[in-house]
């Protein structure tokens, strides 16, 4: 029996299901998805990039919600303000020991494992497709470069 062709609609539904599953996994350990995203960013970013304003830019969000997320992570003991970052008023943010222990239990590790087992060719195809989808969603369907959305895509230092 021949394989049925993969339809665009079926791929879109699978992508939506994957996105919903990822979002649901983002409620692990008493955190919300935005808090997990912030922890992942802080775990992977260089010290000069670990500020609330750089996090907001990375997430393509306004500063207010990101600052609330950071304050919550500080209150939970997962992040600490480690002094001034550069010549601006921004404070450098660092993960605490508890924050590093939590990121080691990141629910996205299961996705990492699936991608790690993927042949290189398939991984490149998936990465390119995801980059285009994210870019299209952020620009309303217009062509654009991947930009900062994927700036940490090749950084495995948080592993």
TrEMBL record:
Transmembrane region(s): none
Q: Which residues form the HTH marR-type domain?
A: 30-89
Please, one GO biological process term? response to stress
Instruction: Tell me the GO molecular function terms.
Output: DNA-binding transcription factor activity
What is the designated name of this protein? MarR family protein
Organism this protein belongs to:
Devosia equisanguinis
């Amino acid at each position: 029996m021949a394989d049925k062709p993969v339809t665009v609609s079926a791929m879109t539904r699978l992508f939506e299901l994957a996105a919903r599953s990822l979002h649901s996994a983002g409620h692990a350990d008493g955190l919300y998805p935005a808090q997990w995203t912030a922890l992942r960013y802080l775990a992977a970013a260089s010290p000069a990039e670990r500020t609330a304003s750089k996090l907001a830019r990375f997430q393509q969000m306004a500063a207010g919600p990101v600052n609330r997320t950071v304050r919550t992570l500080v209150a939970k003991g997962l992040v600490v303000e480690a002094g001034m970052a550069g010549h601006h008023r921004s404070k450098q943010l660092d993960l605490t020991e508890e924050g590093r222990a939590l990121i080691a239990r990141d629910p996205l590790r299961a996705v990492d494992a699936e991608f790690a087992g993927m042949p290189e060719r398939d991984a490149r195809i998936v990465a390119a497709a995801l980059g285009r989808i994210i870019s299209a969603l952020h620009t309303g369907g217009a062509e654009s470069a991947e930009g900062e959305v994927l700036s940490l895509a090749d950084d495995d230092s948080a592993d």
